[in-house]
Structures are given as structure tokens and as C-alpha cells.
């Protein structure tokens, strides 16, 4: 199955059909090749011999056919490491951002029409983020060239980066008379065509979403459940939310893929503070306390 009119040339899937004769194979191929499977996909048929020819093609030949790789790193993203002075970003009401060095205070670069709303730095200073009505824009403010990348998320209010700054969260919410809903997208900053994961549901504070120390995992607590997403596999660890009655909050270790959560005591049971190793899910109860109301 091949997608039509998309940024990606990747197929949607495949199936293998075994036939009794070559004649049947030719007929099937003639009937199904370029058959419109649905509004966005068409079928392509290949024999096993043709499949092997595709596999045997050199990387250069495949690159000519499929176009450039989706991966594209913004230039200059690590140049801030070579600058001994800190940088300061100042924006005006017209969307222009001025980048100053702080020692001494001196204007370095000016980026016009960058953001009509707020701007913010990523944690390590690799990126400067500009917000607009349609989404956000990233630039590497360590170079005078405005090399930018756009991420489309209508009505975005917040964004946050993983500690390694490979992944980014964007967050928005809507309110009506009958409901309030949040929308969250996870992006790989070097593959910006589509989010790698999206969530929607009842509004939760943006701060409930927490990164592990190296950015491998993202967790949040919801409705007596602890959800931990593996960013490498783009799926839930263990394939399902972890049910924990009366769980209140969870916090990652700053040096390892372990987290601590606390569950509030029920009736005459004490509250528990539990150390959880990821991805093994090995537990160790660190402390039991009666009448505990909050863990900071």
C-alpha cells in the first residue's frame, strides 16, 4: 500500500500472496497494480524476483528514487557550547527577536517576523522557540542565519523539551460549555512532518508530564494509573497503563531510569512511597506513612 500526496514515501503495509501458477500471478498483478485501495492509498504488486532486485539496489540508487531522508538536523544547534558568554533573547510587539550576548552586553543577531506571541529557550540553549497561532517555530540562535523548523499545533500554549533535547512536547486545550479538553503532541525535533505520538482527553496541568533523566521515557499520572511511554519504541512500557489505586504523583530520578511515586492510604492503610525501576517494573516500598497529604 503506497500513500498518495504525503510528505512520506513509505508504504502503509504489505501482504504476500502465493499462487499455483505463473499465469495466475500475471493476472493478479495486472488487476491490482495501481488499484485505488482507498482515498489516500493505491496498491502496487511485485513478484519475489523484483523484490530481490529492490533489496539489492545500492543506497545511492535508492536515494535517487525516494528523495532525501526525512532526517534533517538544524544547523548550528551545538554552537552555543563554544560561546563562553550567555545569550539573552528580547522580543518586541512586532514579532522581532533580538539576541544579545551578556558579557559584555552586545547585540549579536536580529530575527524579524519570528513570533507574534511569546518566545522561550530550550533547557540547554540549543533552540529558541517562537509561538504563533498555527504552532511553534524553532531556530538555533547561535548563528546569524534564520534556519527554522515549523511544528503545526493549532492554539499551542506550552512546549517542553526532553533532557537530551531530541524530543519536544507541545500542549493546547479547548473549553466549551460542556467540556474541557487537552491536546498533547510529542515530536522528534529532527523529524518534523508529523508528531510521533498524540494524546487528547480531559484537561490536565502541563506539569504532570515528566521526562526521565535521559529523555528515554515520558510519564504521567491519570485516574489511578501510571502511564510510561518509551520514546524509542513509541509505545507504552509493558503495553498497558500500570494500575495503582490512589496514586497521587510520580517523580523521576535525576540520574537513572527509576521513579518514585506515592499512593494515598485508603481507610486504615498507610500511604506508601514506592521506588519503581523502569522498564523492569521492580518495586521497592521505601516508606509507609499515616495521614500523609502531599509529597514534594
UniProtKB/TrEMBL annotation:
Q: Which UniProt keywords apply?
A: Cytoplasm, Initiation factor, Protein biosynthesis, RNA-binding
What cellular component GO annotations does this protein have? eukaryotic translation initiation factor 3 complex
Q: Which GO terms describe its molecular function?
A: RNA binding; translation initiation factor activity; translation initiation factor binding
**Name of the protein in its database record:** Eukaryotic translation initiation factor 3 subunit B (Trinotate prediction)
Instruction: Extract the InterPro entries matched here.
Output: EIF3B, WD40/YVTN_repeat-like_dom_sf, WD40_rpt
Q: Which SMART domains match?
A: WD40
Q: Which organism is it from?
A: Myxobolus squamalis (Myxosporean)
Q: According to the lineage, what is the superkingdom?
A: Eukaryota
Which lineage do the record's taxonomy fields give for this organism? Answer: Eukaryota, Metazoa, Cnidaria, Myxozoa, Myxosporea
Amino acid at each position: 500500500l503506497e500513500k498518495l500526496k504525503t510528505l512520506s514515501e513509505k508504504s502503509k503495509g504489505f501482504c504476500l500472496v502465493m499462487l499455483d501458477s505463473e499465469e495466475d500471478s500475471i493476472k493478479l498483478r495486472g488487476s491490482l497494480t495501481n488499484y485505488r485501495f482507498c482515498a489516500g492509498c493505491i496498491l502496487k504488486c511485485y513478484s519475489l524476483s523484483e523484490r530481490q532486485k529492490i533489496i539489492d539496489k545500492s543506497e545511492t540508487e535508492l536515494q535517487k528514487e525516494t528523495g532525501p531522508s526525512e532526517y534533517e538536523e538544524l544547523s548550528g544547534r551545538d554552537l552555543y557550547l563554544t560561546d563562553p558568554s550567555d545569550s539573552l533573547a528580547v522580543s518586541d510587539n512586532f514579532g522581532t527577536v533580538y539576541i544579545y550576548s551578556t558579557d559584555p552586553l552586545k547585540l549579536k543577531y536580529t530575527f524579524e517576523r519570528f513570533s507574534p506571541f511569546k518566545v522561550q529557550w530550550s533547557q540547554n540553549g540549543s533552540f529558541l522557540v517562537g509561538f504563533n497561532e498555527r504552532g511553534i517555530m524553532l531556530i538555533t540562535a547561535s548563528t546569524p542565519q534564520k534556519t527554522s523548523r515549523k511544528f503545526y499545533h493549532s492554539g499551542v500554549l506550552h512546549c517542553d523539551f526532553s533532557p537530551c533535547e531530541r524530543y519536544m512536547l507541545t500542549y493546547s486545550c479547548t473549553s466549551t460549555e460542556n467540556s474541557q479538553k487537552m491536546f498533547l503532541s510529542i515530536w522528534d525535533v529532527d523529524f518534523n512532518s508529523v508528531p510521533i505520538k498524540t494524546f487528547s482527553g480531559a484537561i490536565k496541568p502541563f506539569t504532570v508530564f515528566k521526562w526521565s533523566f535521559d529523555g528515554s521515557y515520558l510519564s504521567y499520572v491519570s485516574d489511578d494509573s501510571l502511564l510510561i511511554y518509551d520514546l524509542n519504541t513509541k509505545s507504552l512500557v509493558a503495553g498497558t497503563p500500570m494500575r495503582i489505586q490512589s496514586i497521587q504523583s510520580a517523580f523521576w530520578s535525576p540520574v537513572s531510569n527509576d521513579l518514585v511515586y506515592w499512593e494515598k492510604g485508603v481507610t486504615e492503610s498507610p500511604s506508601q512511597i514506592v521506588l519503581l525501576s523502569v522498564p523492569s517494573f521492580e518495586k521497592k516500598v521505601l516508606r509507609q506513612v499515616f495521614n500523609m497529604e502531599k509529597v514534594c
